[in-house]
């Protein structure tokens, strides 16, 4: 999964448009993009979108944060639509995942869904306190599928006046990004890069996405359909990377009992083999 496109939960028109694109996943949003008075209506519309399933996309629902006391109401409303996953905003750590997982177990059983099938992706860096919970996601639940870092709400939590300049995030946000990446790696789940908010700057989007892939992120969250193709292409391995990966895999296949090998004048070992398989999407 490379691209996860947010769609407002109260806009079937935008959902239909998003469904025509090539995003790997659509995140139907019941949180920030829906004002409080429209949330009940949005829950019903979201359920209809889930049941419609117009394309091959994975369908996630971003529910409201646990501290709003709306999370369980959101889950009860949408689970009959059998979403592939839930996005939990403002997550504070593994205990939040366990709470949502407990609710999902009951709601899956009630909806005739295989218990455990619904995945959870956490937006894990939206408050200052959440940074200190990043190490608690490892082993918290088999449902956990990804950790996404976010800068917008974190800025408000920090009381900052600016997040970035010259196309570069300032230090607190780079720290949150890097710690989220490491937390996801430790938990063996997908690290998901934050949204890009300069809608028309596609060159900047490509640069940021390539940097994310370089550092180890496997997907990016998006807020506009025209970002999808740019992000999908940026996450594809280059021809040079494919060639290198194929050579590494072939070298170890020819020498199955060797822990280290010499390839093109360089020493390679098992971490290189794992990296090569990741590039080619092999287990």
Tags for this model:
single chain; 283 residues; alpha/beta; two-stranded antiparallel sheet; 10 helices; 12 strands; globular; citryl-CoA lyase activity; EC 4.1.3.34; Pyrv/PenolPyrv_kinase-like_dom; Aldolase/citrate-lyase_domain
Q: What would you say about this model in short?
A:
This protein has 283 residues and is an alpha/beta fold.
What does this structure look like?
This is Citrate lyase subunit beta/citryl-CoA lyase. Keywords: Lyase, Magnesium, Metal-binding. Its EC number is 4.1.3.34. The chain is of the alpha/beta class. The chain is built from 10 helices and 12 strands. An 8-stranded parallel β-barrel has the order 1-2-3-4-5-6-9-10, surrounded by 6 helices. Helix 9 (239-254) packs across helix 10. The chain is globular and about 65 Å long.
Per-chain topology:
Elements: E1 3-8, H1 12-19, E2 25-29, H2 39-52, E3 58-62, H3 71-78, E4 85-88, H4 94-111, E5 119-123, E6 144-148, H5 152-158, E7 164-165, E8 168-169, H6 171-187, E9 190-193, H7 202-215, E10 219-222, H8 228-234, H9 239-254, E11 260-263, E12 266-269, H10 270-279
Parallel strand pairs: 1-2, 1-10, 2-3, 3-4, 4-5, 5-6, 6-9, 9-10
Antiparallel strand pairs: 7-8, 11-12
- Arithmetic mean of pLDDT: 95
In terms of structural class, how would the helical and strand content be classed?
Answer: alpha/beta
What's the order of the H and E elements?
A: EHEHEHEHEEHEEHEHEHHEEH
Number of strands: 12
Which residues sit in consecutive blocks of at least 5 with pLDDT less than 50? none
Q: What composes the largest sheet? A: 8 strands, parallel, barrel
β-strand amount:
15-25%
What strand order characterises the main sheet? Answer: 1-2-3-4-5-6-9-10
How far apart are the first and last residues' alpha carbons, in Å?
15 Å
Q: Helicity, in percent?
A: 40-55%
Radius of gyration: 20 Å
- Based on CA inertia axes, which overall geometry fits? globular
In DSSP terms, counting alpha (H) and pi (I) runs of 4 or more, how many helices? 10
InterPro entries: Aldolase/citrate-lyase_domain, Citrate_lyase_beta/mcl1/mcl2, Pyrv/PenolPyrv_kinase-like_dom, Pyrv_kinase-like_dom_sf
GO molecular function, one term: citryl-CoA lyase activity
Keywords: Lyase, Magnesium, Metal-binding
Domain HpcH/HpaI aldolase/citrate lyase: 2-225
């Amino acid at each position: 999964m490379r691209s996860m496109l947010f769609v407002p939960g109260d806009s079937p028109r935008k959902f239909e448009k998003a469904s025509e694109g090539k995003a790997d996943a659509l995140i139907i949003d019941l949180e920030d993009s829906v004002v409080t008075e429209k949330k009940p209506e949005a829950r019903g519309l979201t359920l209809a979108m889930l049941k419609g399933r117009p394309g091959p996309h994975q369908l996630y629902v971003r529910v409201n944060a646990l501290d709003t006391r709306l999370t369980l109401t959101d889950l009860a409303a949408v689970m009959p639509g059998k979403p592939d996953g839930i996005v939990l905003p403002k997550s504070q750590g593994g205990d939040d995942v366990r709470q949502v997982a407990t609710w999902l177990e009951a709601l899956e059983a009630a909806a005739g869904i295989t218990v455990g099938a619904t995945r959870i992706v956490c937006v894990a860096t939206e408050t200052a306190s959440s940074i200190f919970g990043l190490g608690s996601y490892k082993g918290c639940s088999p449902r956990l599928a990804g950790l996404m870092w976010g800068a917008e709400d974190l800025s408000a939590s920090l009381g900052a006046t600016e997040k970035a300049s010259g196309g570069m995030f300032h230090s607190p946000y780079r720290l949150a990004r890097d710690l989220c990446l490491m937390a996801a790696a430790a938990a063996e789940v997908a690290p998901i890069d934050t949204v890009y908010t300069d809608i028309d700057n596609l060159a900047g989007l490509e640069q940021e996405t390539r940097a994310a892939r370089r550092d180890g992120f496997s997907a990016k969250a998006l807020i506009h359909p025209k970002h999808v193709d740019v992000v999908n292409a940026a996450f594809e391995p280059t021809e040079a990377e494919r060639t290198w990966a194929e050579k590494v895999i072939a070298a170890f296949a020819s020498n199955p009992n060797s822990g280290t090998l010499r390839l093109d004048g360089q020493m390679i070992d098992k971490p290189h083999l794992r990296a090569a398989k990741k590039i080619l999407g092999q287990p």
